[in-house]
Amino acid sequence: MARPPTAAQRRIIEAADPATGRLRGTETQLAGLVRLRLAFRHPRPPHDYFLTPAGHRLREQPETPDRTPGRTEERAPVPKQAPGVFAARVGGEEAPEGDGQARVHEVRSAWQGLVEMRRITNPDGSTDRPCGWERAHLVQAAALCLEAADCPPATPDSEGYRVSSTPQPEAVAVRHPAPDGRRACAAALEQAGWQVSEHTEPRTGVRYLLASPRRL
């Protein structure tokens, strides 16, 4: 589990540009946020640093005062879960415990952060197609698209989508037992900038979706 950021790192996150997530700090401080997966370095000059979706979520989470004696000015973050460990539901997990609206907020924040990452890192600033981060994290990216579109994932007790990797480059498989469910998943992925086609497994006859990030 990733360690929480220090108070100094938290201040850098809170001071990020509210629109772009652009960060200011020393190279050492910013590199530390990259290691925590709360920031990324833009591949093009001037190679500025920006918040990742996890960084955007952390910035929105409230802080509580540090109760250590003699430390009245320091404030330490107390997120509901460790920063950087948020993961979209790929299907098959137990449903998250606690307030369902809190999960909705987390997913919405993650999706907004991902859209902003697209705007910043796609060469033409496009937000309607996946960016490099998504191509490097295919299963999580596709799952986030589905969860943000309110497609229900499978749980041990209910049917829903399941996202898995495939031997094909830049492609994931999305399985859903119901034709309507597959159609809803396909529509959500296409709306998010993915190319989707439906196939049949030769040995089992099971229908599934093959989804790839759209490039153009």
From TrEMBL:
Region (Disordered): 1-20, 44-79, 155-179
Superkingdom as given in the UniProt entry: Bacteria
Ranges annotated as biased composition (Basic and acidic residues): 57-77
Name this protein carries in UniProt: Uncharacterized protein
Source organism of this protein record: Streptomyces jeddahensis
